[in-house]
């Protein structure tokens, strides 16, 4: 016979207490901060932004949205009210942002001192302006030809980062096996058995 206790049947802490439902996926938004997440400018540029305090909210209304009256709107005049009214707030942002280019939106966010960044796909990350400006990109050789690679995050002054060619599949197998103590015949057996 199995005896259950209240502790054994209680919902896990990550479930909503009143309904025991799993939280919904929220993409780049934040459960306790609004506005927070990815917004789209009129030219399709995606910008991730975060307004986390009242100074930022007032500045965002005045400079980014050009709607200073929203700062004192009862639906949005505190962080918790902005979260409760997230959908309406996001509709206002979408409406204003649809009339701006990504560059214009970034200029306004910078002027308002609002944390933001352009959302980029993998291809764009490879040519990110900061990587280029900081000389973080280099070229390495590979079995398929030269490839662009990112230099290590940490470097030592006066020393260049070691960026050896990318080895071909199995190129160093015998050297590693030899280091591990496998002699020629032993390595030959491993190859014959397709173990390496």
From TrEMBL:
Name recorded for this polypeptide: Uncharacterized protein
InterPro entries linked to this entry: CoA-transferase_III_domain (IPR050483), CoA-Trfase_fam_III (IPR003673), CoA-Trfase_III_dom3_sf (IPR044855), CoA-Trfase_III_dom_1_sf (IPR023606)
Record bears the keyword Cell wall biogenesis/degradation: no
Species assigned in the record: Streptomyces graminofaciens
SUPFAM superfamilies per UniProt: CoA-transferase family III (CaiB/BaiF)
Pfam family, one: CoA_transf_3
Keywords annotated in UniProt: Transferase
Gene3D superfamilies reported for this sequence: Crotonobetainyl-coa:carnitine coa-transferase, domain 1 (3.40.50.10540), formyl-coa transferase, domain 3 (3.30.1540.10)
Location of the region described as Disordered in the Swiss-Prot/TrEMBL record: 1-23
Highest taxon above the source species: Bacteria
């Amino acid at each position: 016979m199995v005896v259950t206790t209240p502790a054994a049947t209680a919902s896990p802490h990550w479930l909503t207490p009143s309904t025991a439902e799993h939280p919904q996926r929220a993409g780049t938004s934040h459960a306790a901060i609004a506005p927070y997440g990815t917004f789209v400018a009129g030219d399709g540029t995606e910008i991730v932004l975060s307004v986390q305090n009242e100074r930022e909210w007032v500045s965002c209304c005045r400079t980014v949205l050009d709607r200073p009256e929203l700062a004192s709107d009862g639906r949005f005049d505190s962080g918790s009210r902005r979260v409760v009214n997230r959908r309406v707030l996001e509709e206002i942002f979408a409406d204003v942002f649809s009339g701006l280019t990504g560059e214009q939106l970034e200029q306004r966010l910078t002027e308002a001192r609002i944390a933001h960044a352009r959302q980029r796909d993998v291809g764009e990350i490879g040519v990110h302006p900061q990587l280029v400006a900081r000389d973080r990109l280099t070229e390495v050789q590979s079995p398929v030809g030269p490839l662009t690679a990112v230099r290590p995050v940490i470097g030592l002054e006066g020393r260049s980062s070691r960026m050896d060619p990318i080895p071909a599949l199995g190129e160093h197998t015998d050297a590693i096996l030899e280091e591990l103590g496998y002699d020629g015949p032993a390595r030959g057996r491993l190859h014959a058995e397709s173990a390496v």
